[in-house]
Amino acid sequence: MKGQETRGFQSEVKQLLHLMIHSLYSNKEIFLRELISNASDAADKLRFRALSNPDLYEGDGELRVRVSFDKDKRTLDHCR
Fold first, then answer.
1. What range defines the domain where residue 20 resides?
2. Tens-of-pLDDT digits for all 80 residues of the chain?
3. Which residues does UniProt call coiled coil (predicted)?
4. What 8-state DSSP symbol labels residue 66?
5. Residues whose CB falls within 8 Å of the CB of residue 40, separated by 6 or more in sequence, listed in order
């Protein structure tokens, strides 16, 4: 491209992580939605890569996102 210019970009990773952890992920609903969304994105990426390399699948190749909770312990479990 004619006249293309490249510029550097810097970020303060510590500050970004602090901001995300203490604002975004402190809200329980957003935290859970992000967790499920990230797992779903990872499954989509694996599906795409497995088109050219089926060996990437473990087991039956059926990908799932499962979230279960233990009311007594007040915990969530997340697995793919």
1. 13-55+62-79
2. 577 888 776 778 788 777 777 776 666 677 788 888 888 899 899 999 988 998 888 777 788 888 888 889 888 776 65
3. none
4. E
5. 65
